[in-house]
Amino acid sequence: MAINAEIRDRRRWDIFSSVTELGDIAFQRMTWLNLQLLNPHFTFVEFFECFYDACGGEYDISDPASEKAPLNYLLREGYISEAESDAIWPVHIALKDYEYPVDDYDHQFILSDPLWHSVVSVASRSVQKLKKIIIDPSELRHLVIQLPHTAMKKWP
After folding, report:
1. Is the residue at 156 inside a domain?
2. Which of 9, 87, 91, 124 allows an S-S link to 129, with CB 3.0 to 4.6 Å?
């Protein structure tokens, strides 16, 4: 059965954009600490959740071969390649191992936490690997930080 191209593209772009946001500490500072940015997407919690929403699977799995491992659904269904999965997998491990504070909305703490900086570094390296794998310009743009447009700044 052929994959619907629109769905395939959306799934790919969601995971690429998520990894890109996780890999840019300056973007996180600019959005997480901006009190005028009312959209809850721009929080640690949502960056974390969006990654797992995009890659599927169960958060606590460490074995990439596990049927329920993050990214395996996308790989199995043909949304991403094995090379793309291999590039993104370290982000899952880094997020899984990150012990965030009791208040996961304490953005000041998280952004100054050296352990969070390690997660960001892993995600940034994943973006660089993806940029070497992906050649389609329409996909490459999802590996570049997009500043939130006006509609994204508000929440209903």
Report:
1. no
2. 87
136 in any annotated domain: yes
**What is the pLDDT at residue 8?**
81
Confidence of residue 153 (pLDDT cuts 50, 70, 90): low
The CA distance from 5 to 132, in Å, is 22
Counting the structural domains of the chain, the total is: 1
42 domain-assigned: yes
Q: Do 97 and 50 touch, CB atoms closer than 8 A?
A: no
Mean pLDDT computed over every residue of the chain: 89
Alpha helix ranges (H) inside the chain? 5-22, 25-32, 44-55, 72-76, 82-97, 107-112, 114-133, 137-140, 150-153
Contact 119, 21 (CB under 8 A): no
71: region left, alpha or beta (phi > 0 left; psi from -120 to 50 alpha): left
* pLDDT for position 3: 63
Name the residue type at position 106.
D
Q: Read off the pTM.
A: 0.89
- CA 44 to chain CA centroid, Å, is 11
Domain holding 142, by residue range, is: 5-146
Q: How many residues does the chain have?
A: 156
